[in-house]
Amino acid sequence: MRILILGPQGSGKGTQAKRIAAEYDAPHVATGDILRTAVANGSELGHQVRPILERGDLVPDDLMVGLIRERLADENAFVLDGFPRTVAQAEALDAMLDEIGKPLDAVILLRVSDEVATGRLEARAREEGRADDSPEAIRNRLRLYHELTEQVVDRYQLAGIEVIVDGEQTMDEVFADIQDALQVVAASR
Ligand code: ADP
């Protein structure tokens, strides 16, 4: 299965993506994790993106598209998390998958309100101290989600492959809804 998971920061996207990946035995491809690893390793990419991540801004599209092209080249299945975040990235992803005849099977949207998302991010900031969980960076990331990534949500909704799941339920309830949705997708393939 080739699955894309979308949702705002604090929607529980990463947690659910990991569970789906384990269930379907597919790699969890999380662009945020890839970038944070690059920063931690002090690679050239890491140096380049570090200040961008700390502000909660977006890494340039061409850089992200190149990174994903390389990462997905040999994968038949994946759970993609954190990409695409802009329409340009979505167009590049669709073209790339089209070219190799491996379209997305499903797009899962985790829906949560800004209030719930912000509350969860603040709690995470206290527990984990991620560099981009400062109040300013949180606000910036959510703003960019509404400004840019919601257009990606609309795009896949129009394409008719998006399933909306209520992300304000418990983690197990969210996962159960995702499993139900993916079973329907698998049965119709
Ligand atoms: P969150 O969804 O909580 O913001 P992520 O771990 O997905 O966290 O991403 C962390 C940061 O990595 C983003 O704020 C952004 O700077 C960068 N990033 C990740 N994916 C992308 C992407 N597809 N395009 C641009 N920047 C990205």
Structure description:
By secondary structure, the protein is an alpha/beta fold. It has a single domain (2-181), classed as Rossmann fold (3-Layer(aba) Sandwich), CATH 3.40.50.300. The protein contains 8 helices and 5 strands. It has helices at residues 13-24, 31-41, 44-55, 61-72, 87-99, 114-128, 135-158, 171-187, and strands spanning 2-6, 28-30, 78-81, 106-111, 162-166. It is globular, with a radius of gyration of 16 Å. It starts with a strand and ends with a helix. The mean pLDDT is 95. The protein binds adenosine-5'-diphosphate. The site of adenosine-5'-diphosphate has 17 residues, from helix 2 and helix 3.
Topology summary:
Layout: E1 2-6, H1 13-24, E2 28-30, H2 31-41, H3 44-55, H4 61-72, E3 78-81, H5 87-99, E4 106-111, H6 114-128, H7 135-158, E5 162-166, H8 171-187
Parallel strand pairs: 1-3, 1-4, 2-3, 4-5
This protein binds adenosine-5'-diphosphate.
CATH domain topology: Rossmann fold
Radius of gyration: 16 Å
Low-confidence stretches: none
> How is the main sheet built?
5 strands, parallel
Helix/strand-derived category reads alpha/beta
Provide the list of bound ligands, each named once.
Answer: adenosine-5'-diphosphate
Give the strand order of the largest sheet, numbering strands 1, 2, ... along the chain. Answer: 2-3-1-4-5
Order of helices and strands: EHEHHHEHEHHEH
What's the mean pLDDT score?
Answer: 95
First-to-last CA distance: 10 Å
CATH architecture: 3-Layer(aba) Sandwich
CATH structural class: Alpha Beta
- The number of helices is 8
- The tally of beta strands, per DSSP, is 5
Helix content: 55-70%
Provide the β-strand percentage band: 5-15%
Could you say which overall geometry the principal axes of the C-alpha atoms support?
Answer: globular
